[in-house]
């Protein structure tokens, strides 16, 4: 049975099967569209808010149903790459802006310029849109952002008599180093740097000192140049560990959560952490433990620091891009953006959401974080092709060795520039 009748039968069966319909298998017999939304929310509060918003959408949009799919930050890049190449990507994709460049250049993500509402485009500032703009296209909506702050033992600071910084009058990097040294002694340290992943923390904080590291020429190619401003933050960490003895060397290989027991136990006065770590501190701090949120130190560029916001993108292969974009717009209405921010203990990018009183309270340092929002800029490596390989093979081991005292600043500079530019050159031919 290999003639015309067989072909006709196969075509009829295919048209009846969900996977072979013109709409890609996501439209039911009654015409209802089903969109898959892959969320990377992982904290209980955040997962609950995301699922609530999906239910609210489905209750008011009977013709466009959204299916919640749970993803994981630990494996999202490889999982998405596999799903893109296999034609099975979710319609709406939750990710981070520093993971989008290769997907955008590879044609896997939809250009959202003609899909987003004017309300949403106007609500999110231009410097946030820059984190998801590659070439002329916009390939994600930045919606949650996280400044790095200093979480400090309030009692220790008060008893020491040091000046407590504010967003209006922050410490300089030199003052921060001096305070950390003053707070140290008798087996205690002024600061613990959790730098298991040293690259993004170093580069993002270096923007405050005017560091740039990646320089794009008129030909569009990127070159690594480690200049004086790029050395301010690395030298502060290195000298704190190896010269002043004001920073614990044992925490250099730790993640942020690993430092909290020592922080609660009175071993460290301050820990530089992402803003969302406040939730863990609220949950885990011993009864009576007093802590506060301080702005990260400021340099020549003030409080500026780099961020890679969480993003929502639409798959290029989605047959229902307009409906997917409408769901994104719904998720990111100001009241909903506030709910998402509170669930993740992060800051919204939307200007209207940032005005919400719940994000401006002094409790748990919300007001300090909100004051930093205007100073957040696109992370230095945001649009650099080949950055993941440069980070893993060159920058991470180089920074780790420098911070531990195994190499000096000149060797760090040489490896970042010479070895690093060899890696990046392969992506810019």
Plain-language structure description:
This protein is of the alpha/beta class and 429 residues long. Helices cover 40% and strands 16% of the residues. The protein has 18 helices and 16 strands. It has helices at residues 4-16, 44-60, 76-85, 101-105, 118-123, 126-129, 154-160, 173-182, 198-206, 232-242, 260-264, 278-284, 321-331, 334-344, 351-354, 366-372, 387-404, 409-425, and strands spanning 33-39, 64-70, 92-96, 133-134, 137-138, 141-145, 148-153, 189-191, 214-216, 222-224, 268-274, 291-295, 305-307, 310-314, 347-348, 376-378. It has a 6-stranded mixed β-sheet with strand order 2-1-3-14-6-15. Helix 10 packs parallel to helix 17 and helix 17 runs antiparallel to helix 18 (409-425). The radius of gyration is 24 Å and the shape is globular. Residues 1-25 have low confidence and may be disordered.
Annotation keywords:
429 residues, alpha/beta, six-stranded mixed beta sheet, four-stranded mixed beta sheet, 16 strands, disordered N terminus
Shape: globular
Report how far the terminal alpha carbons are from each other: 52 Å
Fraction of helical residues:
40-55%
Mean pLDDT: 92
Strand content: 15-25%
> How large is the count of helical segments?
18
Runs in which pLDDT lies below 50 for 5 or more consecutive residues are 1-25
Instruction: Specify the structural class.
Output: alpha/beta
Strand order of the largest sheet: 2-1-3-14-6-15
Cα-atom Rg, whole angstroms?
24 Å
Instruction: Please report the total strand number as a whole number.
Output: 16
């Amino acid at each position: 049975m290999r003639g015309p009748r067989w072909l006709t039968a196969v075509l009829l069966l295919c048209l009846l099967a969900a996977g072979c319909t013109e709409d890609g298998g996501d439209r039911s017999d009654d015409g209802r569209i089903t969109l898959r939304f892959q969320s990377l929310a992982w904290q209980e509060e955040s997962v609950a808010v995301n699922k609530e918003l999906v239910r609210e959408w489905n209750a008011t949009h009977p013709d466009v149903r959204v299916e919640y799919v749970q993803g994981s930050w630990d494996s999202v890049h490889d999982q998405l790459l596999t799903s893109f190449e296999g034609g099975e990507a979710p319609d709406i994709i939750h990710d981070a802006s520093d993971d989008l460049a290769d997907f955008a250049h590879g044609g896997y993500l939809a250009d959202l310029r003609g899909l987003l509402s004017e309300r949403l485009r106007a609500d999110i500032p231009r410097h946030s849109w820059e984190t998801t703009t590659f070439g002329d296209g916009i390939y994600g909506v930045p919606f949650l952002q996280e400044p790095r702050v200093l979480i400090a033992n309030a009692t220790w600071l008060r008893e020491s008599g040091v000046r407590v910084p504010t967003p209006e009058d922050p410490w300089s990097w030199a003052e921060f180093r001096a305070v950390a040294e003053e707070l140290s002694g008798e087996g205690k340290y002024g600061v613990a740097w959790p730098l298991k992943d040293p690259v993004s923390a170093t580069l993002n904080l270096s923007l405050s000192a005017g560091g740039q590291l990646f320089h794009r020429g008129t030909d569009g190619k990127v070159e690594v140049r480690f200049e004086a401003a790029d050395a301010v933050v690395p030298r502060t960490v290195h000298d704190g560990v190896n010269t002043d003895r004001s920073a614990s060397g044992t925490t250099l290989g730790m993640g942020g959560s690993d430092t909290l027991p020592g922080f609660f136990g009175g071993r460290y006065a301050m820990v530089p952490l992402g803003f969302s770590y406040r939730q863990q501190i609220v949950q885990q701090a011993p009864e009576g433990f007093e802590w506060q949120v301080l702005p990260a130190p400021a340099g020549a560029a003030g409080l500026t620091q780099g961020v890679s916001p969480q993003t929502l993108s639409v798959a290029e292969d989605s047959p229902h891009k307009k409906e997917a974009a409408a769901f994104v717009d719904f998720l990111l209405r100001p009241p909903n953006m506030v709910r998402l921010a509170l669930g993740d203990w992060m800051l919204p990018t939307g200007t209207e959401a940032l005005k919400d009183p719940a994000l401006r309270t002094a409790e748990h340092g919300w007001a300090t974080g909100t004051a930093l929002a205007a100073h957040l800029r696109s992370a230095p490596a945001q649009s650099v092709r080949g950055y993941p390989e440069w980070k893993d093979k060159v920058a991470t081991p180089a920074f780790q060795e420098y911070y531990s005292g195994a190499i000096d600043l000149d060797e760090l500079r040489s490896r970042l520039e010479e070895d690093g530019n060899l890696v990046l050159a392969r992506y810019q031919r």
